[in-house]
Amino acid sequence: MNAFETGDRKLIPACLVYIFRSDSEGRSEVLMIHRHGRDGDYHSGKWNGLGGKFEPGESPWQAAAREVQEESGLSLTKERYRWLGTLQFPNFKEKKSEDWLCTVMTAHLDSAEGEKIQDGSRVSDEGTLHWVSAARVMDLNLWEGDRKFLPHVLTGRPFHGTFWYQGQKVVADELSLI
């Protein structure tokens, strides 16, 4: 039996969703969450797409729809989400013996839907939502590994990646376009 079968390691399924809209001049913007809400948040200070851990029995599309609704108030049907990639984070939370497996998706909003999300609006206890110009996303305080796969999210190119972290530092990575 391996470490997952014995319970020595946990595999955490998660989703990460990047929501796009066009601004008034037709430029692409991405909905990002600035994490600064919870004490002890592992992601504190970082900027992320929306998402989180799957609930038991959820498909990736169901998890994405639930997480987006919880974090932004947007109710998008599962057909609105486009699968874009898969990310592995072996030993992401070392103290908890957790490996994460993350499904990455995108969704595009029309102008009326995009107006429902106000820049700087609070998201539960996690942080605030911001519309960020796609051209400026890479200027944000991102996880180190995000800097490697986000260019593919921004151009819509499917990918698979594995990022080995020690703390908040990437010590090895593999990234392939599909």
User: Mind telling me the C-alpha Rg?
Assistant: 16 Å
Architecture (CATH level 2) name: Alpha-Beta Complex
Major β-sheet, in short?
Answer: 10 strands, mixed
Q: CATH homologous superfamily?
A: Nucleoside Triphosphate Pyrophosphohydrolase
Assigned CATH class: Alpha Beta
Beta-strand portion reads 35-45%
Low-confidence stretches: none
Shape assignment: globular
What's the helix count?
4
Q: Would you tell me which CATH topology applies?
A: Nucleoside Triphosphate Pyrophosphohydrolase
Q: What would you note in describing this structure?
A:
By secondary structure, this protein is an alpha+beta fold. The protein is built from four helices and ten strands. β1 and β2 (28-35) form a beta hairpin. The longest helix has 13 residues, at 60-72.
